[in-house]
Amino acid sequence: MENSEGVKIESTVVTEEPLISALDIALFVVIITVAYFWYFKRDKQSSSSEKKPYTIQPSSLSSIEQTSNSSFIKKLKSTGRSLVVFYGSQTGTAEEFAGRIAKEGARYKMKGMVADPEECDMADLVEMKEIQKSLAIFCIATYGEGDPTDNAMDFYEWLQNGDADLEGLNYAVFGLGNKTYEHYNEIAIYIDQRLEELGATRVHEIGLGDDDANIEDDFVSWKEKLWESVCSHYGIEETGEESNIRQYKLVDCSEVLPERIFSGEISRLKSYENQRFPFDVKNPYLSKIAVNRELHKSGDRSCMHIEFDIDGSKMRYDTGDHVAVYPKNSSELVDKIGELLNADLDAVFSLLNTDEESSKKHPFPCPCTYRTALTYYLDITSNPRTHIMKELIEYASDPKDQEKLKLMASSTPEGKKEFHEWILRDNRNIVHILEDLPSVKPDLDHLCELLPRLQCRYYSISSSPKVYPKSIHITAVLVNYTTPTNRVNKGVATNLLAQLIPTNDELPQPTIPIYIRRSQFRLPPKSQTPIIMIGPGTGLAPFRGFIQERDYARKEGREIGEMVLYFGCRKKDEDFIYENELQEYVANGTLTKLHLAFSRDQPEEKYVTHLLEQNADELWNIIGEKSGHLYVCGDARSMAKDVHSIIVKVVMEKGQMTNSQALNYVKKMEQQKRYSADVWS
Fold this sequence. Notes:
It comes from Rhopalosiphum padi. By secondary structure, the chain is α/β, with parallel strands linked by helices. Helix content is 35%, strand content 18%. The strands form 5 sheets. Strands 1, 2, 3, 4, 5, 6 and 7 form a 7-stranded mixed sheet that branches. The protein has a 6-stranded antiparallel sheet with strand order 14-11-18-9-10-15, with helices on one face. It has a 5-stranded parallel sheet with strand order 21-20-19-22-23, with helices on both faces. The termini are far apart.
């Protein structure tokens, strides 16, 4: 027989007095039963606690270094501070802006601190009124389809569902968004309005930063007026003192044992050697590259089909999800920085926060070598912001270099013009600046403090887990371009991926850290629902997964609805990616119609938008008469906007509606998830 834990118990029948009485057996069963329930109840509680949101500071050796006290009010009171700057950040920009505001507070006798709302008990906002001349500032990014960032989600839900009395709370909000997206700065606007509804006092009007234009300029302009409003509201004056106090201090770690030194891990030391599920933004999976092949047939451009091996990882994805890839900077650029600054890149160091109350002890995993920091943790290829120009001034020995940096760091019209032309238009990164201003020789540890974190890159998954449960496919164009200064800039992630070619021999396969980001870009729940997919270029990626999934359903004998695909590229014989696959799906009936636009195969350019206008009847038949779904993937700046305008026009004409009615109809489609976009700018 088996007991409750499945352990076989052998019994023997004897005629003599049994060694174990019935009472003993009964007691034994009771003890085993109690032990069983105690064990599994404890295990269940343990599992439950593991599912709760957790934060591993990317700047610490382990989660132990996190502060156990989530009360930011207590920290403010115990350290004599009156300013707290919260950030909702997905890529690090909002966190950077928050740090700059907190630092500037000293100029107005407002000692500040930066806080992650995910680590704070935001209900403590009701107690801000207990601190004299207190101010809470929120730097909030809007992410995805009008969603809060991961670390601001709990705060957003608290505002939505709660009714706290925030009378006496003084606040200001700066939003980070992108005008090419429909839900521009939606979360920041909501937070700004909701705080006022709950009784808080708006000290300065909301600022809306547009990443599609010049978000740095938007932020600096708003920040200047913010401090004017703060001075007026509290009756204070600027001290005039420039705060160049560093946030982190350098610690020599030359004596640290090698096994305690980070070598590129995102958070946990040796995490790539000892992988632990679940995998996420702070604990990525080190995936092998199973396939890396060229999709373009000819021409000087490159488009890669890459397959990440996730067999044995327990990772699961859905069709339409994104995969995040952690890149690293090229050794050429890293070595160039060491050469320009005459620095020992293999020296081991740490940067320790001078604010002992901060939960963020380090700006990135420490200790590590300068080479590791510049390779894995710091963004050395993007355009530096104005505050970096300001910090570099003191390191310039040539007066001309000093004046140029001062001008670009200023908020004057001339300074903004110079920054826009010399940094943004000419596309200079920190390496180019150090090359073109040769007298500027910053301390390398200070430069590491100033540079933003290197972010992971997201790609639409171009496979279906029904067909490929053990691998994740992506479709990526190799990014290389020449700048106005005749330098060749290379995409950090795609140029790294291009080098990761799997071998056919027994050599170790190339690997790269990844994790899965969930998406709302989903097929209809019913396979019979007709759909239209619009995806020129690599916008085809998620639709490859959609088609695979519908084809799988068809082969299982399930009924599938119409699938219409609009695809476009430059030339049929050059960059028609996945051509054979698509033609096969047309032949077997999975893909009902394949509309193709090759923009440069004829004298007049032809795009998918032209085909949409020509097929108005088909469009209305599916989205209007059959209540089908419409999907768009690709460029947000022009293509997605043009598609939206065409859809509204088709609804007007074929649905016999006014412009207002058509707009409402399309809006309702979006609300019902019948019109979905996976776009980028």
